[in-house]
Structures are given as structure tokens and as C-alpha cells.
Design brief:
The chain is of the alpha/beta class. The protein has 8 helices and 7 strands. The chain has a 7-stranded mixed beta sheet with strand order 1-3-2-4-5-6-7, with helices on both faces. InterPro entries: AB_hydrolase_fold, TEII, TesA-like, Thioesterase.
Length: about 250
């Protein structure tokens, strides 16, 4: 499939015959290739798309969008051409709340996802007043080290690291200034996923996603911190595969 949305949507392992798509949303400071291996492992059964936000890699000369609502509006515009078959949404950290806001907008248009898999983020209505985006560069780098989600090679290259900090800071601002606006719960089911030692999300805060759906809720708790998923990729892939297959069967029954 060829579209005019390629700057926003990466499709590393096209699966044209797959019965459904999975749209993946990266964490703050992350980029679409974070999901390269997930796409490979899920193909050809699922056609995996990864959203590439402005301000990073080949889009580094574009301004970072530091507002979740604005970013959600832009992503919805770019995703519409890809919604020609059933789809599910997966997001981690910033990507989880962004995927949620995208799901809200799509459901309002009558485009219901098969489901939302929200990883590494508290329920949208649960407030935390984090201010990492206001730290100086050294403080922000320390925060990246604390969460253990940034590539070691990047952390070891101080010059390169400081080049990407504006992107990281903008993403953190989007995540940390997000304010939930009450509205109808999603009709699609939600799976919450979290690490049991995540310093940014307690298990109780992850369980709060149950309040945002009428379609059923499940919570998966894995050993690990904020980037627990890096150590559980095979299990996560199987979880996604099984969840999408089940929900697709429900739609087709």
C-alpha cells in the first residue's frame, strides 16, 4: 500500500495479506524503529505500523509537537488511509496515552479499534505532577539513565545525546503536561501492561485504565521497571498476537 503518510507511518515488514493491523506508538524520546523487531516477529499474521513523531531521525529538522492533543489530531489524519482493515493500537509510556487519545478520536468517527494495549502509563485520569521537562540538560540526561530505556551507545556519546535532547524534552513536556478531559469511555477493550517496579507507574495506577472502557479490561504485570518490555519481548509479542486474534474473532463471529 502506498500513501502520502510515509513521513508519519513506518511499515518495516509489510504484511499485505494480514487480516488486521497493529499501530505502535513510541515512548518519549523514542522513534518508530523501536518496533522494528516486534513487526518482524508479528509478520505475516499482523501488519505492523509504527508512528514516527516529528523532531527525530530523518524528521529531526521538524519542530517537536509538545502537546498530546495536537499530536493525536495529527496522527489521526495520517492514520485514516491505513484503516481499511481491523486494527489495534499499542503504545508505551507517552505512546500509551497518545494511543488512547487517538482511539477516542477514531471511535468518535465511528472507527472502533479492536483494542488498546496501554503499556507503561498510569490511567489517563490519574494525575502525577512530573517536571522532568523543566530540568537542565544534565538533569534530563540523569533522568534518562534512571529509567534505563535509552540505548547505551547513545548515553555514552555526550555530543550526540545533547543533539537529541530537544526532542526528548519536547516529548517529556507533552507527557507531563497532559491533562485528561472527561468523556465517554472507549467501547474497545483495554489491556494495561506495566512493570512491577516502574518508578513512574504503580500497579494501582495502571489498574485505573479499567475506568476508561466498557469493552473489558485486563492488566498484565511483568517483572521490571519502566522499560520492563525490553526484557519480555517474546511474551509481549505472543500477548499481542493472541489478543488481536481473539478480538478479531469476536468481531467476525
Amino acid at each position: 500500500m502506498t500513501t502520502a503518510t510515509e513521513e508519519w507511518v513506518r511499515r518495516f515488514h509489510p504484511a499485505d495479506q494480514a487480516p488486521a493491523r497493529l499501530v505502535c506508538f513510541p515512548h518519549a524520546g523514542g522513534s518508530a524503529p523501536y518496533f522494528y523487531h516486534v513487526g518482524r516477529m508479528l509478520a505475516p499474521g499482523l501488519d505492523v505500523l509504527a508512528v514516527q513523531y516529528p523532531g527525530r531521525q530523518e524528521r529531526r529538522h521538524e519542530p517537536v509537537i509538545d502537546s498530546v492533543p495536537e499530536l493525536a489530531d495529527r496522527v489521526v489524519e495520517q492514520l485514516r488511509p491505513w484503516l481499511d482493515r481491523p486494527f489495534a493500537l499499542f503504545g508505551h509510556s507517552l505512546g500509551a496515552v497518545l494511543a488512547y487519545e487517538v482511539a477516542r478520536r477514531l471511535e468518535a468517527e465511528g472507527r472502533r479499534p479492536l483494542g488498546l494495549l496501554a503499556s507503561g502509563h498510569r490511567a489517563p485520569h490519574v494525575e502525577r505532577h512530573n517536571t522532568a521537562h523543566l530540568l537542565d540538560d544534565d538533569g534530563l540526561i540523569a533522568e534518562l539513565r534512571r529509567l534505563s530505556g535509552t540505548d547505551d551507545a547513545l548515553l555514552a556519546d555526550d555530543e550526540l545525546l545533547r543533539l537529541v535532547l530537544p526532542c526528548v524534552r519536547g516529548d517529556y513536556k507533552a507527557a507531563e503536561t497532559y491533562t485528561y478531559r472527561p468523556g465517554p469511555p472507549l467501547a474497545c477493550p483495554i489491556v494495561g501492561l506495566t512493570g512491577d517496579a516502574d518508578p513512574l507507574v504503580s500497579v494501582a495506577e495502571a489498574r485505573g485504565w479499567v475506568d476508561h472502557t466498557t469493552g473489558g479490561f485486563e492488566l498484565d504485570v511483568h517483572p521490571g521497571g519502566h522499560f520492563y518490555l525490553n526484557d519480555h519481548v517474546p511474551a509481549l509479542v505472543e500477548r499481542i498476537r493472541g489478543f488481536v486474534a481473539r478480538e478479531l474473532a469476536n468481531v467476525n463471529s
